[in-house]
Amino acid sequence: MPEARAVLRRLSPVRPWFRNRTAASLKADALAGLTNATIVLPQGVAFAIIAGLPPEYGLFTAIIVTMVAAIWGASNVMVSGPTTAISAVLFASLSGLAIPGSAEYIALALVLTFLVGVLQLAAGIAGLGGLIAFISHSVIVGFTAAAAVLIGVSQLGPALGLSGGEGGVLHRLGQLVAGIGDVNPDAIIVAAVTLASLIACTRISRRLPGYIIALVVGSLSAGLLGAGASGVAMFAPLGAILPAFGAPDLNFATIGALLPSAAAVACIGLLEAISIGKSFAIRREEPYDSNQEMVGQGLSNLTGSFFQCYAGSGSFTRSGLNAESGATSPMSAIFAAGFLSLLLVALAPYVRYVPVPAMAAIILYVAWKLINLAEIRHIVATSRTETFILAATFLTGVLSELDFAILVGVVASLSTFLHKSAHPLVAVGAPTMVNGRRVFMNAEAFDLPQCPQIRFVRIEGPLYFGSVEHVAHAFREIEAKDGLKTCILNLKGVGKIDLAGADFILAETRRARIHGHDLHLIAANPSVVTVLERLHCLDVLGHENLHSHKSGAIRPAVVQASDPICKTCLIRCFNECADKPGA
C-alpha cells in the first residue's frame, strides 16, 4: 500500500509547489517566462531542423512538453523542451528509415516520442532514478560533443548555400568537399552577419533575445543583398501555428523497429534532465527527486506525442536563463509556454522572410556551445578511466551512429563501475606516529616495519562474488612476500558481504588454523555482523574472534603470538607487545 500511494502521489496533477504561490512570485515567474519564450522561439525552429522535422514541431514541443514537464517534474527552475542532443539522435535514428520532413518521417518521430514517454514513465514509477548515478558524467560530455560535431557538419552546407548532405560526419564532409564549387557568396555573407550579431548580443547581455535579433539582422542583410534572387533559400511558411491533437500511428512492426532507438533517446533524455535538475537543486539548496523527474519527463513526452511534439528533455541553456531571470517555481516554464503560443500567432507570418543560411549560422553557434572544452580538459587531466569512457562515446558518435554511441558509453561506464567494485583495495597496515597520534597506515607505501607473526589487513570495498577472486589473489601475493601469519582482517570498509564473501572468510580461517595461526575480524557495521551470523561464519570463526575495534583484535592476537619469537623481536609493532617476553 505505501508503494501504491507513492505512485499515485507522483502521478497526481496537484503538485506541492501550487500552494506556495504569491502575487510577487507569480510576477517574477511571468517575467522569467517571457524572457524564456523569446529565446526558445528561434531555438525551437533550429532544433526541429536538426531533428529533420518541419520548424513548427520544435515550437509545439516547446509548448506542450515544457508545460507538462514543469507540472510533474522535480525542479523549480529547470525548463524542458526540444534539445540539441535529442534532436540529433532522433535524426540519426530516423533518417535511414524515411526521408526527413516527409509525412512518414513525422509519423515515425511521433511514435518514437510515444515510446520514449512510456519507457521514461515506467522507469519513474518503478523507482529507477538511482540507476542514473551509475552512468558516468563523461558519457554525457562525450555524447554531447559527438552530437555537436554532427550538428555542426550538417549545417556547414546550408551556411555555404549547399545542401546539408546525408549520413554520418565523414560522409557529410565528403559530400561538402565534392560540392565546394557551388558555394553561394551571398549565403556566406548572410551566415557570417547572423553569427557575428549573435556573438555580439551574447557578449553584451545574456538577457537580450540574441537569437531573434540575429535572425532579424540576417534577414535584413539577405534583403539588402537581394539574396533570394541569387539562389539563397528561404524558409517555407509554417504548416500550423498551434499544435493539434492526433494519436500516433502505432503498430507492432513500427514499435519493434523503433524500440532500440527509443531506449537510447529515453536514456539520453533522463540523463540530461536529471543532471540539470540536480545541479540547480544543489546550487539553490532545494530537494530533488530523480524518480519524480522521470515521471515528469515521461508524461511530457507521452502527452506530447498526441500533440505533434517530438521527444524533449531538460534544457541547460533555458534552465540557466530561467534561474538568472528570477524564476521561483515551475510556473515560469508554464508562462514561457503560454507566451510562446502568443508569439507564434504574432510572428508566424514572418517566418518566410528568414534565410536558411541565417538559421544555419545560429545552429552552428548552438553546436559550438554544446562542446564543453573546460570539462573535457578536466576529465583528461584527472582520470584515465573517465577519459576512456569519454573517448569511446565521442569516437563512436563521430565514426558510427549517435544512438549506438550512448549505448557504448553506458556499457563502458557500467563496465568501469563493475571493474572497480570487483577490485577492492586490499592493503597491509602497520602502526606509526603521525602528529603525536598512533595511526595505522599502508605498510608498503610508507615502508613501515611489520610484526613477524601478525599481519593487519584492510579491505576497502564489497566482499562479494565479483570481488572474492581478486581479494584471494591479493592475499596469496601478500603471503608469498613474507609467509603465513595470524591475520587481523579489518572489515570496517566493507559495506557488503554475500555467500561467496562468507565462504572466503571461512576458507581463510581454516587455512590459517591448519598452519598454526588464526584469523580475527574487525567489524562494527551491524548489517555486516548480521550477515556473518546468518551465513554461519561465526560458527567456525568463533564469536571471540569477532571484534568491534582494532585494539580488541590486536590484544588476543598478541597473546597467542609465540613467546620465543617475541623475545628476540626488536620491532615491538603494537602497544600490546610490551607485555610479551623481551620487552
From TrEMBL:
InterPro entries: SLC26A/SulP_dom, SLC26A/SulP_fam, STAS_dom, STAS_dom_sf. Residues 444-557 form the STAS domain. It is a multi-pass membrane protein. It comes from the Bacteria. Keywords: Membrane, Transmembrane, Transmembrane helix. One of its GO terms (biological process) is transmembrane transport. One of its GO terms (cellular component) is membrane. The chain crosses the membrane at residues 30-51, 57-74, 81-99, 105-124, 131-153, 187-204, 211-238, 250-274, 333-351, 357-376, 388-414. It is found in: Membrane. This is SulP family inorganic anion transporter. It comes from Rhodalgimonas zhirmunskyi.
